[in-house]
Amino acid sequence: MGVLEGKVALVTGGSRGVGAAIARSLAQEGAAVVVNYLRSADKAEGVVQSIRGEGGKAMPYGADITDEEAVRGMVRTAVETFGPVDVLVNNALPDYTFDPTTRKDLASVRWEDYLQQLGALRGALYCSQAVVPGMIEGGCGRIISILSNLINNPVVPYHDYTTAKSAFLGFSRNLAAELGPHNITVNMIAGGLIDETDASAATTEEVRTIVASSTPLRRLGTPEDLGRAVLMFASPWAGFVTGQYITCDGGLVMA
After folding, report:
1. Does residue 3 lie within any of the structural domains?
2. 3-class SS at 144?
3. Is residue 60 within 8 Å of residue 41, measured between CB atoms?
């Protein structure tokens, strides 16, 4: 029996890359998983079928997490299908390409670029507000947000993306302080350069080599690495850990 047997997880942006790996990791430990997606219906269905093929429970759900009513509808459907959500993973990322050669610098970045990336935080707020009442009623819960080690080590200054990810620190620690008395933990995982996702496909080979050679474990991260880190926070083993921000990047950032 898996450590998450009987639990229900919602993974935003779960149709591909890191989100798909997180969904599979949670399902492998027994959680029923709602795989949220925005446009990648076929990929979300593929993730769900792979989970079901291994004997797990999963369902795809298309919803724009920046739409409050859409989020509430998604959570209602999750509850009706599997039961109250026990684990929320805020993973969804607004469209972004990690390309150091075409990134916007200080002279070209606009406030609207920041607002677009802050859409991820808006989605995390709506999702948290939708699932927390059920967590409180159930007496426990886990909220886990995916950040970036660029917060600590902006090796490439992606201004709008990194700033938006930094905002999750304050958001998550406020949640941890407020929700702790209800036995709900809130933690953050900062990934490094992940090899290879759609978002990182444009990253140059030079940058990949520099990052890998500078990393104590001498490789780039994989989606599965982040999936296992999420599993740690979602499991009973981390029941007394909250408000924490850790990096999962092979030791590149040590703080």
Report:
1. no
2. strand
3. yes
Residue 255 lies in a domain: no
Residue range of the domain that includes 124: 8-248
Cα distance between residue 175 and residue 162, in whole Å: 21
Q: For position 200, which CATH number holds?
A: 3.40.50.720
Q: Which of 37, 158, 161, 245 is the catalytic position?
A: 161
Give me the half-sphere count of Cα atoms (radius 13 Å) on the Cβ side of residue 167. 16
List pLDDT tens digits, range 170-189.
Answer: 999 999 999 999 999 999 99
Structure tokens at 241: 């850990």
Residue 153, CA atoms < 13 Å, CB-side half-sphere: 16
Domain count, the chain: 1
Q: Which residues of 11-31 are buried (b: 16+ CB within 10 A; e: fewer)?
A: bbbbbbbbbbbbbbbbbbbbb
Q: Residue 123 pLDDT > 80, yes or no?
A: yes
Examine the pLDDT at 255 and tell me if it is beyond 90. Answer: no
Condensed to tens digits (0 to 9), the pLDDT of residues 68-110 reads 999 999 999 999 999 999 999 999 988 888 877 889 999 999 9
Residue 253 lies in a domain: no
Q: For residue 194, tell me if it sits in a domain.
A: yes
249 confidence band (pLDDT: 50, 70, 90): confident
pTM: 0.93
How many other CB atoms sit within 10 Å of the CB of residue 88? 28
Instruction: Tell me if 187 sits within 8 A of 233, measured CB to CB.
Output: yes
Q: Is 161 annotated as catalytic? A: yes
Q: Which three-class secondary structure string do you get for 8-34?
A: EEEECCCCCHHHHHHHHHHHHCCCEEE
